[in-house]
Amino acid sequence: MADQAYGVSAEGAAPDVGVYHGTPALRLQGISKAFGTVQALQNVNFEVYSGEVVGLVGDNGAGKSTLIKIIAGAYVADRGEIFVEGQRVNISTPQDATRVGIETVYQDLALCDNLNVVANLFLGREERTTIIPYLVRPMNELKMESEAREVLRQLDVKIPSMRVPVSSLSGGQRQSIAVARTILHKAKIVLLDEPTAALGVAQTRQVLNLIRRLREQGLAVVVISHNLADVFEVVDRVIVMRLGQRVATFDVKTATSEQVVAAITGADLSFKELAAFDGAKEDAAKSSQGKTLASEA
């Protein structure tokens, strides 16, 4: 199924805007993945540039989650290649993805409710001070809190205290903590899975502003969402998947939500097929009429 390009420079390419020229921060080429007899992904290409936000949309079963899990290292592609900043990389585990600068914030956020903000930000990567090598290495709480305050300041995240359990924070604040953790991990590419799901209006606004700040800091951001209003508000391009394939690419400056919905549902393809079918019927009728006249003559 060909990738239809709306407001982009070429089929499957980046928009014709100077900031997106050059080498993508992340590029996938010919990615395919099957689960038994089910072909989840078929020859998918994907790209996102530094300082760009790309929305990845599609109906349930379109292949979005499978593609993201391949990028994140949760799944391994059957075929295809992955490039980070122009260099081919092998990603077969989440640790591989982290090593090359890819961080994923899943919908469940993976936060520990009983731990405070600082502990969640450094979970599994605590800063330690060595007193006796291999024996006494206490956590450096002051350094961790200082670094945590700085990254939250960069992202303009406001919370009541660094030492409150995250269970006491709002949904938007919790999402902000999960995103801030990717910055502490030195991410170059951030994948956000349904970042505004189940959030109120104010909390959604907070998360969308956070995504804009990630772009301002030069990160490549991929947003997976079913909420087209949020997608159009914050992304630069929309990539549509349907039935395991990339079927359309839109520049939000020139596209409409109706066009995106048509690509998601396949309505655009149906209209074309219908027109072709009607044209074929008309041609067949004319041909039949011509043969009848010729035989009568």
Describe the biggest sheet?
Answer: 7 strands, mixed
* Strand runs, count: 11
The secondary-structure element order is EEEEHEEHEHHHEHEHEEHH
Assembly status? single chain
Q: Give unreliable regions as ranges.
A: 8-19, 290-297
* Coarse morphology: globular
Strand arrangement in the largest pleated sheet: 1-11-10-4-9-8-7
> What proportion of the residues form beta strands (DSSP E)?
15-25%
Tell me the helix content: 25-40%
Give your account of this protein's structure.
The chain is of the alpha/beta class. It has helices spanning 64-72, 94-99, 117-121, 141-154, 171-184, 201-216, 228-234, 257-265, 267-296; strands at 4-6, 26-35, 38-48, 53-57, 79-84, 87-89, 102-105, 189-193, 220-224, 237-242, 245-251. It has a seven-stranded mixed β-sheet with strand order 1-11-10-4-9-8-7, sandwiched between helices. A four-stranded antiparallel β-sheet has the order 3-2-5-6, with helices on one face. A hairpin with a 2-residue loop joins strand 10 (237-242) and strand 11 (245-251). Helix 4 packs across helix 5 (171-184) and helix 5 (171-184) packs parallel to helix 6. It starts with a strand and ends with a helix. Residues 8-19 and 290-297 have low confidence and may be disordered.
Write the layout of secondary structure elements.
Elements: E1 4-6, E2 26-35, E3 38-48, E4 53-57, H1 64-72, E5 79-84, E6 87-89, H2 94-99, E7 102-105, H3 117-121, H4 141-154, H5 171-184, E8 189-193, H6 201-216, E9 220-224, H7 228-234, E10 237-242, E11 245-251, H8 257-265, H9 267-296
Parallel strand pairs: 1-11, 4-9, 4-10, 7-8, 8-9
Antiparallel strand pairs: 2-3, 2-5, 5-6, 10-11
Helix pairs in contact: 4-5, 5-6
